[in-house]
Amino acid sequence: MVDIRTLALPIRVTENKYVKSTLEDSVHFGSLEGYKNIESQGIGDEDEGKIVELFKKEKSKITIRIPESDKEITLTDKDFMQNPRMEYELKDGMEKRIGVASFGLLTFRDFELDRSFNNQKYFKLRKDTLDDIKRLIKDKEKLTGNKCNLIIFSNPDFFSSIKESGYEADIVQYYDPYNLSQFSKLKNGNKAYCYLKKDYFKYQREYRIIKIAKDKFPQEGENVKIKGISKRASFFSLDQLKTL
Question: 197: Cβ–Cβ under 8 A, 6 or more apart, which residues?
Answer without folding.
Answer: 45, 47, 48, 172, 173, 174, 175, 204, 206
